[in-house]
Amino acid sequence: MEEHTREHDTHTVVPYPKDMRAFARYAHGHTLLKVAVSGAAVTGYCGLDVFEKAKEIGREIARQGAAIVTGATTGFAFYATMGAKEEGGFSIGFSPAATEREHMEVYKLPLDYMDIIIYTGFGYVGRDLLMIRASDAVIIGCGRIGTINEFAVAFEDRRPIGIVDGSWETDEILKNIIDTAHRENPRVFTDSDAKSLVEHVIAQVKKDKQELNFVYNSRDGVGGTGKNAEVIL
User: Fold this and answer.
1) Which domains does the chain have, with CATH numbers?
2) 50 with 60: CB under 8 angstroms?
C-alpha cells in the first residue's frame, strides 16, 4: 500500500496509509477497547529483550483492534506504543504534566508516536490513577514502584491484568503480592507470549462488559440504591 507521511513540529514523522483504510476500525470510537501498558521508564536492568517484548505487546494490542494507553513516557511503554503504531494502531497518552511545554521541558517526556495526549497536571501518582481508570485492562511489563502502583490500582478496580513473564523480577514480585494478598482475583493472567496474553486480557474485558459492567459508588449522590457499597450494580 502506498504510504505518505504526516509531520508535527516536535513529533516523529509517522507513516500512514494513503486511503486511511487501516483506520476504518476506529470509526466508532466509543466501542474501542483501551488497553493500558505499564512499565519502567528506565529499563537498563530489564534485560536485552525488553524492547522487543514491549514492541510485540503493542503490536498485538493493535492487531486485536484495541487502542494502546500509556503514561506518555519513555522506556517500556514507549516501545509498546512504537510497536502499536507499526501496526497502524491508535495511541493515547496520559501525561503527568499540565501542558505540552511542561511535558517536554520539565518532565522530559516524549511526544513521539502519540495520537492523543491528555495533560492531567496531577503529577505521576495522579496520572497513574487516571490512566488506569480510563482503561479497560492493563498489561504489566518490567517496572519499578510506579508500575507496582498502577498494578495495585488495577487490581483494586477489578480490571483485567496481564503480567508479562520476562527476564526481569517484576513478574515474580507481582505474583508474590497476589499470593499474599489473600484476595481471589480471576482477572489476572501471566504469559511470556504477547499474543496469548493480550488475547486472554481482551477476552476477559469483553466477558466483563457482557456479564458485569460494574457501576461504582462514586459518592456523588448518584445511584441511591448503592447503600454505600463499593460496587452498586
Assistant:
1) 3-226 (3.40.50.450)
2) no
